[in-house]
Task: structure prediction
Amino acid sequence: MSTGNSAARLLPLFDEHPSFDRVLEEHGASALVRGRVRTLQVNVGKLCNMACHHCHVEAGPKRTEIMTQGVADRLIELLAKSPEVEVVDFTGGAPELNPHFRWLVEQATQLGRRVIDRCNLTVLFEPGLSNLPEFLAAHEVEIVASLPCYTAENLEKQRGRGAFDKSIQALLLLNRLGYGRPGSPLRLSLVYNPVGASLPPAQAKLEAKYKEELSQHFGIDFHDLLTITNMPIKRFAHALERENNFEGYMSLLVDHFNVGTVPELMCRSLVSVSWDGQLYDCDFNQMLEIPLGAGARTIWDVESLAELEHGRVATASHCFGCTAGAGSSCSGAIR
Result:
């Protein structure tokens, strides 16, 4: 199931807005250049048990794009030759649905890398995955779990009926294994996305509210809340277009550009790998099929990810989503 036409159709819409590079220049900031690659973010496929309204991947149960063993083998070979990479961040789709997911986790942990699983929580109840939480705990995999709201109404606006109860049950299960408990090495972070076309509220204040609500009503613990801005691409962009609000949302992002976020943008220390082994500057560029700024490359074209240091990062107007307000990255707010 190809979405290339979808990506190509969105790029002209970005052209109608200010150039991100020009705005950087106007604020006295240099063009984005990658430093040391500390994070390797791996999209192992677009197959997912859910089809969330805000999904920038357009993942879902009918997607067929999935990383093969051959690509996985080369990925681990490249990781072994890239000792500067500290974190391997697995995403999707639902990364756990890839048949090679556990092998990839085992190989990355054996190489001594910190491993993150970006989990939608409900996937833990899919057939054949009943022992997955124990596997993740045994390998001390950090779980970054999507929970767009602590109320059923708002969460199910994004994720569908029944998603809230399954998410709560999954969090309780993870807590029983030690995830999210105070002082536990089993890290559990939750991710908040706004329900609509708005910027996330202050991360620290919202984290306190999440902890209060989840503890009081369900007895759930977690370590951190990460607030992430909805990116105006793929499924969320289509929703904005249907509501005639794409222009308004882009203007919101541009108007709230914060130059103070630029030094810590994730693309300065991250490389994104697609399910078929293509390299990109970030997961968002991957979904828009914007080639690596240093040139279109694959995991077979480099001997080490260190070769990508000092390379130019490709940008477009969607980059305003990472620099608006407090900023947004896969690790939450920047400032």
Observations:
- The CA atoms of residues 21 and 31 lie 6 Å apart.
- Confidence is low (pLDDT under 50) at residues 1-5.
- The beta strands are 39-43, 87-91, 114-119, 142-146, 188-192, 224-227, 270-273, 279-280.
- The radius of gyration is 19 Å.
